[in-house]
Amino acid sequence: MNAPAELLARYGSPLYVYDAAVLDAALAAARTAFAGCSARYALKANANAVLLRRIAATGFGADAVSPLEVRAALAAGFAREAVSYTGHASSREELAAVSHAGVEITLDSIEGLRRLADVAPGSACGLRINTGIGAGHHRNVVTGGAASKFGVPLEDLAAAMTEAQRCGLRIIGLHQHVGSGILTAQPLIDAAEMLLRAATPWAQRLKWLDFGGGFGIPYRSEEAALDLGAVVSGIRERAAIWCKGNETSLELRFQPGRILVGACGTLLVRVIEVKSSLSALWVATDSGSHHLLRPMLYGAYHRIENLSHPDAAPTLVNVTGVLCESGDVLAHERSLPLPREGDILAIRDVGAYGFAMASTYNLRPRPAEVLLHAVGAELIRPRETDSSVLG
Ligand code: LLP
Question: CA–CA separation, 105 vs 303, rounded Å?
């Protein structure tokens, strides 16, 4: 019933497919790893409403970066007090809307503190800091360090605290997020130590520390998974010592995105043609970078399987899409069982930042999304219609 050809016949090609069992397993593993902490799912990775409800029902909180993400989180049933908004360049209007929704705000700059004080005087809020540590799978996703636009630099933290007090805000939490797609524990632990050190002068007034997200998943078969349990327990141990030393206690927060939803997603595409041109064999599919931007934007690798002819001769090909743009390549020089016209390819691990970053570039509608259960498929977002693309 869940055979790829049937799914494509029923819902159209290309198609985003999420495996409920894989999602549930990732959620359960993360619940265990984050036990005793507040884990807030970063909606930006995938904000499909049905997936959000499943994540909320598993006991996660949510982290939003826009008013609509806040709305989506609350509509999905995340408890209001477990929803945070970690904004960047938040306008007065945006801060007023989020504050009105009753969701706690974490600001990213001293200037932002002043805007919040204008629209929601006397608020308690968080502050994002840049401790100088950055990490990630590509320079575009490194969010800490000298080259990053995010957060208040450590040397300005004292000034930010003073300014908050002057304008009547209470800073009750400090946050950092160093980057995304991190597969080793060390940068995350190092960054946590920096955050703890930075928080020390304000230990008595802080109610929480938020260590952000960034937990990577292995995209290549030979990559080892991050030991999430070891990362979280390493941070918890250090935080416990810090709390004892400062005679306080506080909530430890995390904002996992990719590690919850990345592995459950597959993009099913159909091969339109296979052509030999100059030095390469080009396998053109009916999808492309408008549906999965990661390869084009970051050179990201996603496993691809030829579901129609898994036993065909392994052949080096470039897998591309329909866009009129030469960068529209989903895989370079990939060895695949030689695809033929009409074959179905499965592009794996696209549950995070896949559909979420899809567009209608070239006026091509975004695909449908379905959730696969053991007993069948559930349409969780219909394919975008031509008229909604045309506007
Ligand atoms: N918290 C904050 C403040 C963030 O900016 C992010 C991601 C997260 C949490 C969740 O990070 P995660 O656990 O998913 O790594 N589009 C890129 C990833 C950009 C991540 C942006 N911020 C990609 O496809 O790799």
Answer: 38
Tokens of 216: 């990577």
CB atoms within 10 A of CB 48: 23
**Considering the entire predicted model, what is its pTM?**
0.97
Q: What residues pair up with 273 in beta bridges, in sequence order?
A: 284
Give 84-111 pLDDT, tens digit per residue: 999 999 999 999 999 999 999 999 999 9
AA letter at 388 = S
User: Which amino acid is present at 239?
Assistant: A
Annotation marks residue 37 as catalytic:
no
Return the best residue to mutate from 55, 108, 180 for the ligand 1 pocket (most ligand atoms within 8 A of CB).
180
Contacts of 203 (CB under 8 A, 6+ apart): 242, 246, 248
Tens of pLDDT, residue by residue over 129-172, are: 999 888 898 888 888 888 889 899 999 999 999 999 999 999 99
- Residue 300: enclosing H or E segment and its boundaries? none
3-state SS class at 49? helix
Ligand 1 in contact with 128 (CB < 6 A)?
A: no
Phi, psi of 175 (to 5 degrees): -135, 150
Q: What is d(CA 265, CA 372) in angstroms, rounded to the nearest whole number?
A: 10
